């Protein structure tokens, strides 16, 4: 299901958050960790869903609480279309219900409170690289 990139070369990442400043900051941190990341940020979740119809990033960082189209809507959209991409939730919600709901989506790799630091992104990327194609080998953090 999930594949490691050859020596972690060229990795496409989607940042989906309605707050532009959050995307700018997250892009900066990710670029500091890996200069070769191809980062696409979306402050309009509908545009992100349209991009997911044709693009397949290796990893998605997703906010939950967005107006009109929520992160839950995007996760449901991905499930219905069988889009198997690992997702790291970055949210301001510390709700136990949200954490439990996130666990119902098998592609959610981690549930993190924002803002995330550069070291936090580094740890998440290292955890992502440890994934293999066995669903039992997935590491859920958070």
Automatic annotation (TrEMBL):
Q: Which Pfam families match?
A: Response_reg (PF00072)
Q: Which PANTHER family match?
A: RESPONSE REGULATOR RCP1 (PTHR44520:SF2), RESPONSE REGULATOR RCP1-RELATED (PTHR44520)
- Residues bearing 4-aspartylphosphate? 63
Q: Which SUPFAM superfamilies match?
A: CheY-like
Q: Where is the Response regulatory domain?
A: 12-129
Q: Species name for this entry?
A: Cyclobacterium lianum
- Supply the name of the protein: Response regulator receiver domain-containing protein
**Any single GO BP term:** phosphorelay signal transduction system
Q: List the keywords (alphabetical).
A: Phosphoprotein
Q: Which InterPro entries match?
A: CheY-like_superfamily (IPR011006), Sig_transdc_resp-reg_receiver (IPR001789), TCS_response_regulator (IPR052893)
Q: What is the lineage of its organism?
A: Bacteria, Pseudomonadati, Bacteroidota, Cytophagia, Cytophagales
């Amino acid at each position: 299901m999930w594949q490691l990139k050859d020596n972690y070369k060229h990795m496409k990442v989607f940042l989906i958050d309605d707050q532009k400043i959050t995307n700018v900051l997250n892009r900066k941190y990710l670029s500091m960790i890996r200069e070769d990341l191809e980062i696409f940020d979306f402050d309009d979740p509908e545009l992100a869903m349209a991009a997911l119809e044709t693009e397949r990033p290796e990893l998605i960082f997703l906010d939950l609480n967005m107006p009109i189209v929520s992160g839950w809507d995007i996760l449901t959209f991905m499930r219905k279309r069988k889009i198997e991409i690992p997702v790291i939730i970055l949210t301001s919600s510390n709700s136990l219900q949200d954490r439990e709901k996130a666990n119902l989506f098998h592609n959610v790799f981690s549930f993190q409170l924002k803002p995330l630091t550069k070291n936090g992104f580094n740890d998440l990327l290292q955890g992502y690289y440890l994934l293999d194609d066995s669903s039992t080998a997935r590491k859920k953090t958070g």
